[in-house]
Every structure is written in structure tokens, then in C-alpha cells.
């Protein structure tokens, strides 16, 4: 098939520049202009089908008919808010909480992962009476002013009450040392806060350290760090916006891989298959204390339409066995990526869990020198080949491979073939 150029990309870019604030960025040298989505595919304005190996928001596939139907049905009946009684938000709460360890038995709904994290920050401050937060060196936790101060990946620095610890880099730190080193770094952060007269309210991390570069192994390595913060009077907030809802394949949530029970868990992106729903899950004693001291009303969070959508997503995850799919296809994908590593010197490391994989591009394998330029060439080369992936890591040296969950082994093979071609064309 001959592919027509995108007819109006230049016009749309010019309109954006005129109308939207410049803090927004467009991905890819050749911007994407999708007009339709179905499963793991996007269709561009010129009719071209693009394999989506990047987007985790359409968790059960773009425009899943059951989710669309649930949304439309409830939107046609009623949409209000959590200040009135409604069964659907309770049905959804029950179904969602059933996926968590028994200790985590209450939920509060929000619209975005940022709001869930912002609420978790408020709860942690309120119940501990402490002000300090510890995050990883290239973390991203959200858009609010409080979270921007805890999101060093934005390049703005962190707040005076925030300390960063190096990401637990499994490529550069030996597996046997990684847990002890992460713990020692958290202990040093606690000590540094103490020097400023601040106690920790929480250690907050993404349980796959995605924006730091995706670090998942060895499972259990975060335990010592979590004990350290609890010992200092702080909570552990597990940010599951990236890892959560079946993507890990082995477990529903990233923290479960580490055999931990967090104090607070924040969820977002994948819960609504594109619809903005998010949540904070908690130990009830914490919310009792928070509820005594504070009120919380999120106008759109937990509304009947969002709850219906959330329920439909959980139905699809169960009925299409997407946890098992993530495990099976993830293993196939990882094996294929390992195969490419043996063929291409520029692939320094392959890592991942379930349907969350990353490869790290290097200019020199023995010294493990990160190669962000090569990573960018691969991302843009794949986009030209009709495949979407993203970048991750402090320098943008990693490829973020994170497709919608119904990704099949055929889809994985299609992706691996294109990746092989693009890697083969990289400058030596
Ligand atoms: N936490 C993590 C780990 C994230 O990746 C993101 C979004 N990329 C957020 C929080 C914020 O979620 P949202 O964009 O829904 O506000």
C-alpha cells in the first residue's frame, strides 16, 4: 500500500502553536495524527494502521466495545457525583478492593493519577504530622504544584522538604547489592531531612520506576527502604499509575511483585481505558484519621459514568484473561528482545515484567555508556515504520515498551521485526 502523507500535519501544528500553551509537547519528529483506534491499533488520518506498543491508558485496547457501551449506557441514564447515593460506585469499589490485600480496604476516587497522588500526600502529611517526602531521582508523580516539587524529571528541582534517592539501577548495580543500596540511600535521605528539622511523611515511588528507566528486579529489593521510612515514622505510598492493573502479568499490582503491603496506593491511567478515573486505596485507619480532620469532595471523581466504565474495564480484564495474557505475551516479548540484544551491539540491556519492557541503548557496551541519541533514532525510526514506543530514563536512553494489554504474540513479533530492522540501520 502506498501511504499518503498526512495531509494537514503542518496546519494542525500551526493551529496548536497559535491556540495551545507552548508547555505541551508533540511526540515524534513526524507527529502522529490518529483518527480512530481499535484494540492495539491506531489509524492515522491518511488511513495508515499504526501498532501501539506505547499507550497504557487504553489498557484493555483502544475503544473497547464493552467499555464504550457501559459509558454510553450510563451517560444516557444519569451522571451526578458522590454526594448522592448510587450503587455503581459501591459496586465498583467492591470489585476494585477485592483485587487488593485485605489490609487495603477503602478507596477514594479521583479523576487523575495526579489527584490520587496529591490526595495521598495530604493523607500522609495529616496522619503522620510530618512534612518530608522521598522520591527517586528521575521520578514523575503528577501535575499539581505539590507533585511538581516531587517530580524531578520535570527538571525544576525539588521542594525543600523533598529528598531524592538514586533510582535502583539494575543495569549498573549488581543484583545482590541493589536492595541494600536503595535502603542506604533512603536512610541517607531521612538523615538529610532530619538535619533540616524535617521528618518523613512518606517514601513515594512508582513500583516499576518507569520514568527512571524501568527497574523491576530483583523482586523484593525495595523492602529494606520501606522498612527504613516506616521506622522513621513515614508511610510508603505505592504509585501504581504505571505498573498497576494486570500489566505485570504475575500480579495485578507492582507492589505485589515485591511482596509488600503499602500504606497508600495510587492508581490512574489504565483504570478507565481512556476515561479519566483514578483512585487512592488505603488502610482504613489512615482514612479515618484523615476524615476526622478533613473533608474531601472530588466533583467528578467516582461519578456513576466513571464507575460504570471502571467496572467494564475490570470485567474485560477478567473475561479476556488479560493478566495471563500479559504474563504469556510479556515472556515472549522479553525473549524476543533478548534475541535482538544478541544481534545488536547498541542494545545494552533488556528488562521488564509482563507487558512492561524496556531496553537501554548504549554507545559502548563494556562501559554501559547511555546513548540517548540512538534511543531517539529508534523511537522515530519505529514511528516511520508504523510502530509506537516511547523514551524513558534520566537521559532518555531507554525505550519504553508498554502496549495495551490485549497485545498478542503476533503483535509482539510484528514489533520485534520492525525493531530489528530499525536497529540494523543505526549508524555504527
Ligand atoms: N504517577 C506516575 C508514575 C505517572 O506516570 C503519571 C503520569 N504519567 C502520574 C502519576 C500522573 O497521572 P495523571 O497524568 O493521570 O495525572
Q: Secondary-structure map with pairings?
A:
Elements: H1 9-19, E1 34-38, E2 41-44, E3 49-52, H2 65-77, H3 87-97, E4 106-110, H4 113-128, E5 132-136, H5 145-148, E6 162-165, H6 175-195, E7 200-206, H7 223-231, E8 235-239, H8 254-257, E9 264-267, E10 278-282, H9 284-293, H10 304-319, H11 322-343, E11 347-353, E12 356-364, E13 369-370, H12 372-384, E14 387-388, E15 390-392, E16 398-401, H13 409-424
Parallel strand pairs: 3-14, 5-6, 5-7, 7-8, 8-9
Antiparallel strand pairs: 1-2, 2-3, 4-10, 9-10, 11-12, 12-13, 12-16, 15-16
Helix pairs in contact: 2-10, 3-10, 4-9, 6-7, 11-13
The structure holds 4'-deoxy-4'-aminopyridoxal-5'-phosphate.
Briefly summarize what is shown.
This protein is α/β, with parallel strands linked by helices.
Explain the overall architecture.
The chain is built from 13 helices and 16 strands. The protein has 428 residues and is an alpha/beta fold. The protein folds into two domains: 9-60 and 321-424, Aspartate Aminotransferase, domain 1 (Alpha-Beta Complex), CATH 3.90.1150; 66-319, Aspartate Aminotransferase, domain 2, CATH 3.40.640. The chain is globular. It binds 4'-deoxy-4'-aminopyridoxal-5'-phosphate. 4'-deoxy-4'-aminopyridoxal-5'-phosphate (PMP) binds next to helix 4.
Amino acid at each position: 500500500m502506498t501511504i499518503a502523507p498526512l495531509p494537514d500535519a503542518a496546519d494542525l501544528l500551526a493551529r496548536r502553536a497559535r491556540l495551545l500553551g507552548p508547555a505541551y509537547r508533540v511526540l515524534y519528529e513526524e507527529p502522529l495524527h490518529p483518527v480512530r483506534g481499535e484494540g492495539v491499533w491506531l489509524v492515522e488520518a491518511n488511513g495508515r494502521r499504526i501498532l501501539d506498543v506505547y499507550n497504557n491508558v487504553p489498557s484493555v485496547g483502544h475503544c473497547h466495545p464493552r467499555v464504550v457501551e457501559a459509558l454510553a449506557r450510563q451517560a444516557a441514564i444519569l451522571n451526578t457525583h458522590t454526594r448522592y447515593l448510587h450503587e455503581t460506585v459501591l459496586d465498583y469499589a467492591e470489585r476494585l478492593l477485592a483485587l487488593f490485600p485485605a489490609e487495603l480496604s477503602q478507596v477514594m476516587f479521583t479523576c487523575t493519577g495526579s489527584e490520587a497522588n496529591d490526595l495521598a500526600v495530604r493523607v500522609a502529611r495529616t496522619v503522620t504530622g510530618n512534612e518530608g517526602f522521598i522520591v527517586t531521582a528521575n521520578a514523575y508523580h503528577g501535575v499539581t504544584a505539590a507533585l511538581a516539587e516531587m517530580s524531578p524529571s520535570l527538571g525544576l528541582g525539588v521542594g525543600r522538604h523533598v529528598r531524592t534517592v538514586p533510582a535502583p539501577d539494575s543495569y549498573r548495580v549488581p543484583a545482590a547489592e541493589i536492595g541494600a543500596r536503595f535502603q542506604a540511600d533512603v536512610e541517607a535521605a531521612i538523615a538529610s531531612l532530619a538535619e533540616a528539622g524535617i521528618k518523613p511523611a512518606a517514601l513515594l515511588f512508582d513500583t516499576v520506576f518507569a520514568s527512571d528507566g524501568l527497574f523491576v528486579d530483583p523482586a523484593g529489593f525495595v523492602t529494606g527502604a520501606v522498612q527504613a521510612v516506616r521506622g522513621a515514622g513515614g508511610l510508603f505510598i505505592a504509585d501504581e499509575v504505571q505498573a498497576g492493573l494486570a500489566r505485570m502479568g504475575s500480579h495485578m499490582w507492582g507492589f505485589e511483585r515485591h511482596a509488600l503491603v503499602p500504606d497508600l496506593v495510587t492508581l490512574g491511567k489504565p483504570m478507565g481505558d481512556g476515561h479519566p478515573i483514578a483512585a487512592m486505596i488505603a488502610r482504613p485507619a489512615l482514612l479515618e484519621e484523615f476524615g476526622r480532620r478533613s473533608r474531601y469532595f472530588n466533583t467528578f471523581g467516582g461519578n456513576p459514568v466513571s464507575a460504570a466504565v471502571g467496572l467494564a474495564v475490570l470485567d474485560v480484564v477478567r473475561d479476556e484473561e488479560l493478566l495471563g495474557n500479559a504474563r504469556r505475551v510479556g515472556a515472549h516479548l522479553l525473549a524476543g528482545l533478548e534475541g535482538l540484544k544478541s544481534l545488536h551491539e547498541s542494545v545494552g540491556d533488556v528488562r521488564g515484567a509482563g507487558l512492561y519492557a524496556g531496553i537501554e541503548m548504549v554507545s559502548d557496551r563494556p562501559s554501559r555508556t547511555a546513548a540517548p541519541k540512538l534511543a531517539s533514532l529508534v523511537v522515530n525510526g519505529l514511528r516511520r515504520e508504523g510502530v509506537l514506543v516511547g523514551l524513558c530514563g534520566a537521559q532518555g536512553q531507554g525505550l519504553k515498551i508498554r502496549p495495551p494489554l490485549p497485545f498478542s504474540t503476533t503483535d509482539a513479533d510484528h514489533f520485534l521485526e520492525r525493531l530489528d530492522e530499525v536497529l540494523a540501520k543505526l549508524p555504527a
